[in-house]
Amino acid sequence: MAESTIVEVIRMLDPPDAWTMRWHFVIDMNGDGQITISDVWLWASYIFFAPGDVILLGIMLKLPSVAAFLEMTPKLVSGWWSFAISFLFWTIFLGSLSAESRREKEKRAHH
Fold first, then answer.
1. Structural domain boundaries of the chain?
2. How far is CA 97 from CA 51, 53, 85, 88, 109, in A?
3. pLDDT (tens digit, 9 = 90+) per residue, 18-57?
4. Number of CB atoms found within 10 A of residue 50's CB
5. First CA to last CA distance, the chain
6. The 3-state secondary structure of the chain, one letter per residue
7. For 74, how many CA atoms within 13 A lie in the half-sphere containing its CB?
């Protein structure tokens, strides 16, 4: 199953089913019966969009009135909002790791 097909299926589901399907990981992500470079790209996409998807689907599941007000549906999975949230998350996360690494190097340099 190609990534676009998986995403399209998720986008048609109710939030609880979309949540379950979003977190279903298989090694052969595109369903072609082989592990190829295409699967590696899909693994990276799966990981990259995880923070945004967890927040969006979490709001739909835990705060349905907020989701309804904001007109949130599973169609947002791996879309622009998920991209923006995920990009922000990874920027902060990787920036924090980098800063911590620099602090550790400076500590070792002074001892």
1. 3-110
2. 17, 22, 18, 14, 18
3. 888 888 788 888 888 899 998 899 899 999 999 999 999 9
4. 17
5. 54
6. CCHHHHHHHHHHCCHHHHHHHHCCCCCCCCCCCCCCHHHHHHHHHHHHHHHHHHHHHHHHHHCHHHHHHCCCCHHHCCCHHHHHHHHHHHHHHHHHHHHHHHHHHHHHHHC
7. 18
